[in-house]
Amino acid sequence: MLHVELVLQGLVNGSMYAVIAVGLTLVYGLLRILHVAHAGLFTLGAYITVLITNATGSLPLAVAVSAVTVGVAGMLVYRLLYEPLLDRPPYVALIASIGLFICMEEGYRIVFGPYGNSFDTMQLTERINIGPIGMAAADAAMLVGAVVLLTGLGLLMKRTRFGVAWRATVTDPAMARAFGIDTVKVRYVNFFIASALAAAAGALVAVLNNLVEPTMGSVPSYKSLAIIVLGGLGNVGGTLAAALLLGVIEAYGTIYAGSFLDRDAIAFVFLIAVLMVRPQGLFATGRS
């Protein structure tokens, strides 16, 4: 029974990492940019969710508004920050992204205060029992929400014209343009989707922890950057597998190594060990 509960907890943690990291993978796959400011959008999504839920009493409405608002914010980040830098070396965009992330954290601290915000009424506090196995409703929401979002993303990429256009643009942008694909539109939609996923992850984490604070995006962002390397840069399927694997490793590590390492340290020890042995990632496809 302990192992079942550990696997479930690992999948909950891994689901959160997956939703964040897949957004990073979408951006990297299209532009070859490490979008560190993605973590700032994750935090923005959490703040919007808490504020609107407290104002309206409706968590679903808050999550929907958060996803749309942060999606638009992501498009603005692309237009104002990345688009002018596309002809520069990748490290220029990376430095700009790190700078934006720091500015966003400081902005949240100034606007919302340094001590964090929480829901006026705790959300999803019930406990769900399936036979002998029980889990908090917030954990179940994280798991189900991630499955729905990632399944929807998979269908979008496999079954729609945008998905075909996205894959063509990733493979060969010049050829995609020659066949009439609007690669600029693809980039904007890509940033909207990736940022909306970050907002959804932020909303779910806010519910899970009942706390939103200015620096809440820092640790998930570092882990997500490592996860997309572990999964093979630009490989969406590899990112999902790496995120879930990391979540399970964390859950087991907390039990068996938690006396001398905290959860985040366990995660980074695992990631460093794997990347030292296989720096191209566990699921690399051969493209860089």
TrEMBL record:
The chain crosses the membrane at residues 6-26, 33-53, 59-78, 90-110, 130-157, 188-212, 224-253, 265-283. One of its GO terms (biological process) is amino acid transport. GO terms for cellular component: plasma membrane. GO terms for molecular function: transmembrane transporter activity. It comes from the Bacteria. Belongs to the binding-protein-dependent transport system permease family. LivHM subfamily. This is High-affinity branched-chain amino acid transport system permease protein LivH. It comes from Rhodoplanes serenus. The gene is livH_19.
